[in-house]
Structure to design on (547 residues):
């Protein structure tokens, strides 16, 4: 029999699978469990968006598009970025339509990182950055953001992490799992540190449309930052389009020229039907965003108030659809707490450690669920808490 | 989005929740709702019930009614008369092939048919009625009538 250890890449064998999945698998085995675990909208894609994809298939538009995506879609993305975030990107050579935000992140890392390069990564954050940086031969340099700073990245922390080898800063805001955002002032301070350097920024703005009380500010709109910033974003969270696998990159042409090659050889183009759906979303989807956002906002406050009244300390998240309360002060680990909660109370949440070691003591609760569902989870948690107090 | 749009979609939203969703003060929302109620813009708050999932005997019919409009008051007087019956749930003045559309609820088809024959058809100036029974309700007031599906979103989340 073949010896698989001889054929598989050492680099990939060393990479661990996502820690969140482990918890989902536990969840699948347990019965009568209320989960607050999922990181995707509970809404269906608005019908007018889905219908455009169906129409495109009916009309036989089932071929590859241009490698960077339909011209019309790139133009619509360009208009959208200007309309919503005051950003200017040339549809012809500064925008690439990707297979979700995930591909956007992957190809960005791959086109920037040389072996040995350091990539500054604020954690807790979405689970994909570290493994991909490592696959590229880069070295993740972790910054542990702090609850007392509302999990924002500070300029001081950034400054202290920069070395001669620093190539890139990842800015995952609005943040999954903490719900933290960066305001213009935070970004100005970060820009001050970066402007005199040759450090690039990968700004993951997939949750840009989901901020509460204030509008998202893109780092690319700060003076001196556009030239060094790659924006990775997509349709999944804003338009409830996770299954369509549609995202995009916006960056200066010098950078997209390189990204384009990886995308061209590795992917060809994003799914054509999805691109037609995306076009409709960009053109006529602003109201859908507003509707879904108002629903998330309602749930955000219900879950936040609920957790606080149970005695959890939780900073008020201003973006995405997650809460990141402190669940333990070290008596037990986050993992242990979440397992106890699952088996004793029938509520599933994701331990903060799935998003970085500094997530110890915290857990991620998603509010991409109906109000009834959230209230049931809170009732169960209340019983659980009372049992131990 | 407005208070009315949000409440039309979900009448159980509290003033506090509306305030969060609209980025306004709870007190202002309360005042606005009171005013909308006083002006008769908001007429009530009800639950949407799929009676087919219960034991209740229940049937709905759409009745097309043709009438001779009355001098001075047109269709209003007839429509208002029809509204008095508790069996009648909805009354619309229509354009097209007939004049008034009425949704009637009853326990059985026979009960509804008798109600039409003995009450609606006898109203002065009603010249004809046509009764269409509802066989299944797919969507009502913007809500699709189906059982909540299984949440399958966990399968791929990382």
């Amino acid at each position: 029999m073949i010896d698989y250890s001889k054929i598989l890449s050492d680099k990939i064998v060393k990479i661990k699978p996502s820690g969140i999945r482990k918890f989902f698998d536990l969840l699948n085995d347990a019965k009568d469990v209320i989960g607050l675990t999922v990181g995707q909208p509970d809404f269906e894609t608005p019908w007018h968006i889905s219908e455009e994809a169906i129409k495109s298939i009916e009309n036989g538009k089932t071929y590859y598009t241009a490698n960077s995506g339909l011209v019309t879609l790139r133009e619509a993305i360009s208009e959208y970025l200007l309309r919503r975030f005051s950003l200017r990107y040339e549809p012809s050579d500064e925008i690439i339509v990707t297979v979700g935000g995930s591909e956007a992140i992957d190809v960005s890392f791959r086109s920037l990182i040389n072996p040995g390069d350091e990539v500054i990564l604020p954690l807790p954050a979405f689970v994909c950055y570290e493994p991909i940086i490592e696959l590229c031969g880069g070295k993740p340099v972790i910054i542990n953001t702090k609850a007392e700073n509302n999990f924002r990245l500070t300029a001081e922390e950034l400054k202290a992490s920069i070395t001669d080898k620093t190539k890139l800063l990842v800015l995952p805001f609005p943040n999954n799992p903490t719900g933290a955002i960066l305001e213009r002032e935070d970004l100005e301070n970060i820009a001050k540190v970066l402007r005199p350097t040759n450090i690039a920024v990968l700004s993951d703005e997939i949750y840009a449309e989901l901020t509460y009380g204030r509008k998202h500010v893109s780092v690319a709109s700060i003076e001196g930052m556009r030239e060094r910033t790659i924006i990775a974003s997509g349709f999944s969270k804003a338009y409830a389009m996770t299954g369509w696998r549609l995202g995009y990159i916006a960056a200066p042409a010098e950078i997209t020229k390189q990204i384009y090659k990886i995308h061209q050889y590795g992917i060809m183009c994003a799914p054509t039907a999805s691109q037609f759906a995306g076009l409709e979303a960009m053109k006529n989807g602003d109201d859908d965003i507003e509707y879904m956002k108002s629903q998330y906002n309602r749930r955000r406050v219900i879950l936040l108030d609920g957790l606080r009244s149970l005695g959890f300390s939780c900073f008020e998240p201003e973006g995405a659809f997650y809460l990141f309360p402190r669940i333990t002060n070290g008596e037990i680990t986050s993992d242990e707490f979440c397992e106890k909660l699952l088996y004793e109370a029938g509520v599933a949440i994701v331990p903060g450690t799935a998003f970085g070691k500094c997530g110890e003591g915290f857990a991620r609760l998603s509010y991409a669920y109906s109000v009834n569902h959230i209230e049931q989870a809170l009732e169960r948690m209340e019983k659980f808490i009372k049992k131990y107090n | 989005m407005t208070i009315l749009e949000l409440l039309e979609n979900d009448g159980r939203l509290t003033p506090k929740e509306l305030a969060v969703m609209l980025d306004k003060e709870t007190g202002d929302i309360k005042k606005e709702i009171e005013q909308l109620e006083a002006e008769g813009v908001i007429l009530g708050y009800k639950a949407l019930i799929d009676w087919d999932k219960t034991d209740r005997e229940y049937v709905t019919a759409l009745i097309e009614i043709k009438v001779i409009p009355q001098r001075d008051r047109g269709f209003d007087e007839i429509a208002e008369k029809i509204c008095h019956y508790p069996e009648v749930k909805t009354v619309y003045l229509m354009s097209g092939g007939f004049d008034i559309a009425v949704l009637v609820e009853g326990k059985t088809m026979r009960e509804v048919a008798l109600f039409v024959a003995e009450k609606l058809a006898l109203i002065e100036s009603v010249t004809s009625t046509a009764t269409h029974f509802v066989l299944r309700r797919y969507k009502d007031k913007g809500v699709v009538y189906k059982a909540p599906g299984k949440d399958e979103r966990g399968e791929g989340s990382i």
Summary: The radius of gyration of chain A is 21 Å. Chain A has two domains: 4-45+287-388, 48-284. The mean pLDDT of chain A is 95.
